[in-house]
Amino acid sequence: MNIVVCVKQVPDTTEIKIDPIKKTLIRQGVPSIMNPFDKNALEEAIQLKEQYSGSVTVISMGPEQAKATLREALSMGADKAYLVTDRAFGGSDTYATSYILSKVIEKLGPFDVILGGKQAIDGDTGQTAPSIAEHLGIARLTHIRSMKIDGNKCVVEREIEEGIEIVEAKLPILCTATKETNKPRYATIKGKIDSLKADIENITLADLPNMDITKIGLKGSPTRVKSTFIPERKSSCEMLEIVNPRETAKVLFGKLAEAKIL
Fold it and tell me: Between these two residues, 134 and 122, which has the higher pLDDT value?
């Protein structure tokens, strides 16, 4: 079984700060990590490889520093890794990014299963992975809890608002993982050492001759981020003097009802 996992290097959101003048993310000095949901997708891919045999290929689109995330994936058990990088790809939104990644997957494939996280913690759109399936013309099943392969079919349990549904679809298929899908493993010392020796190949625009350049980069992106900001926090406090607990509770419930909290 051939499996490809799309991962993204993201800023650690616990350290996120916004430039008050430029209204953009301050990335300098902010540590980068593998998108947590992508790590669940990678774990699922490795488990599929262990159960059904095959190989796991990991791809990431970004600058040269994103190779650190790819090496982390290799240390966990991925077999091959590729960095998709080119100045022409800069400024790509989720549509353009998914188009570029779909062309890379076509070049490296064929693949039986494509995996990704349900969303990235920096953008939180949840659009890129499902859009890859649309570009490739294959089925997609999002927010999976588990998946099993039965011949040329995939049986998936996925989360929905009403509970859990079981869905069957033909391969090839794209699935997105959540924190509930599994618990990612820790890399071994040997895996970390081997990942440092691994050769990670760059894939650029020149390697993708069938690419429609009108669909990539800033010009090929139908959406724009005009501004990023932290919402202003407004709060007030009113102290209630406790003379009689019963009367105080009555006043408190009245104020909560007035504020439409209850």
Answer: 134
